[in-house]
Amino acid sequence: MLAFTEKQPLTPGTPESAGMSTEGIDRAEEYVRRAVDAGVIPLADIAIVRRGILVGRASFVNREVADRGHRLDADSIY
Fold first, then answer.
1. Which of 29, 38, 73, 75 is the most buried (most CB within 10 A)?
2. How far is CA 51 from the centre of its chain?
3. What distance lies between CA 28 and its chain's CA centroid?
4. Which of 46, 53, 50, 52 shows the shortest CA–CA distance to 28?
5. Against a cut of 0.85, is the pTM above it?
């Protein structure tokens, strides 16, 4: 198990730069999107990080939830 004693900044990068694939990131985002669209979860904000590299970030809100005025943005608290 790894333990970090100090906060490490995230560096934006490509999935490949972190040893991941763009296709894998796309599949993960699509999985979450489908769960939100199906109403399994009302909303989701995901960040995919490996080795301190931010390789994916996406927000999803179910249409019914969005129609009631709910949204996700960088200032959202949940």
1. 29
2. 16
3. 9
4. 46
5. no
- From residue 35, alpha-carbon distances to 5, 18, 27 in Å are 35, 26, 12
First to last CA, the chain: 28
User: What are the φ/ψ torsions at residue 7 (nearest 5 degrees)?
Assistant: -65, 135
Taking a C-beta distance cutoff of 8 angstroms, is the pair 31, 48 a contact? no
Q: Which residues contact 69 (CB under 8 A, 6 or more apart)?
A: none
pLDDT (tens digit per residue) in 16-65: 999 999 999 999 999 999 999 999 999 999 999 999 999 999 989 988 88
Sequence-distant (6+) residues with CB within 8 A of 29 are 46, 56, 58
